[in-house]
């Protein structure tokens, strides 16, 4: 961000210097005085933009460069230092002043709340200082950091779009001169316009169109890669994904927000922002032309002169059209937001049916699931029908609006042409300029459907980021639950109170100690807070107060009753959460055999849906294999052998004692047969009002070998 500010300051100084030089040399052929004075305004705008959004800074900076290039190019053309063909392709003098106007507009809208909501999502990419993304070769050489590459690509895209506007202006003057040559029957002038004006313009138009697509695609790919990585790493970091449901922020279906909404947001932000400013450049350019053509316009069939009548007419026409479009199309914003939500709910329900297909089949729950899916799908159709009817109304108006706008300028200017006050070329130029101004002013009319979807995406991504921020705050401060380190090597709790998300207290422990070494069994009735206590020790439970201290520098692993089995190879499932290169094949096979899964030892590279392929007991034994590989200092087993028979359970505990002699084991369980595998017991004792307190129980027999 500091580099952006210093760059704007340097650019402001250079702009002011150029403007001063143009004023200081009156004998030098140069653009009109207003162009020189506009340079000082541009310098001020550059300095005032130091604290605005990183994304919008790019636009202001590019406008500043655009002013310098246009002012210097027109000066060189006036001095005869440029070839005639190149000079003929330059935009009018007022284009340099237009760049100042656009910079002022960007600075003004940067404080508008909807724009700030957008830039809060967009800015982190353009302000980051990460190394360029290695997996993408497009424009990797275009900056030293990923953020710098993004800024340079946006700037390049803006320049390309301005070049396209300049070409549009060139075509406007070409059509005027060509039609005038036809009216005058001047063959030489006609062929000159075709060969020396049209052909270069057409060739440049093709090249610019191809390059524009390449630049925009590279920007979107790089931006999406960085933002997607950033969001899912933040979502998965420090248990944020686990805590989001405990916040008061609406953040359903994070998978859709990271995959679909990010992609749509980037495409729409890049496309709409650059297109909008391109339309603004076209608007200013053609308004000047239209004003020049109608500066002394006489109303048809009267002698009344209305200066710039066509300008006022097209502005009034576009304002009324935009207002009516907003009235008709406003409900689309809510409908599009709702459509994203119901589509995601339906997709999530289908995914759950795939995951729990065995349970559904065993319970013969197909009819219930079909009825539930029917209800979810009907919600999609009902909402989409509402979108269809609203879009039909919007299209009916916008099509009528565009059809009427094509005939307006001809109807208004035709009387002057028939009275021989203007030429055929001027009539054509007037119609073309009116059409371009009308199109620019009607940007919101033609893009309303896209803007409605864009706002819905922005709302969803903004809510997702706010939810992550609140979840991170829960992790950082919680409700007074502090995390620290115990130098004695034990896990301890002091003045510990754990609550449910609704605020109801479930566990109170004035003092709690889980001693290092041996094995401790945590028992108690269901719902007494045993698993919640494990979550608090692991540091992921945000609701509570007091303090939990864990041994510093020691590793811990928690195995829940239902282990998570990732997609992919069996090797990846066994070594999780480590990567597959962490352990040798021999070590993985030995762990599987020790966990009583010898049949899987030679299937490490098979890809399957292992969470469906393996039984509940096999999944629990696979989790035990993970612990044998990881060799943690502390192993917390939350009913991690509940799906095994007693003999297999006893064998597993014996294996853990053998393979992990230095590991402290803490188990949650209900079976009395677990007692002989532990040497200490802590019991959750009810204390009234739904609260339980962990208290040390009678010593257990020495663990069975």
Automatic annotation (TrEMBL):
Any GO CC annotation of this UniProt entry: plasma membrane
Entry-linked InterPro entries: AAA+_ATPase, ABC1_TM_dom, ABC1_TM_sf, ABC_transporter-like_ATP-bd, ABC_transporter-like_CS, ABC_transporter_sub-D, P-loop_NTPase
Domain ABC transmembrane type-1: 156-453
UniProt KW Nucleotide-binding keyword: yes
Pfam families according to UniProt: ABC_membrane_2, ABC_tran
Membrane topology: Multi-pass membrane protein
Protein name as annotated: Putative ATP-binding cassette transporter
Species assigned in the record: Methylorubrum salsuginis
Lineage per the UniProt record: Bacteria, Pseudomonadati, Pseudomonadota, Alphaproteobacteria, Hyphomicrobiales
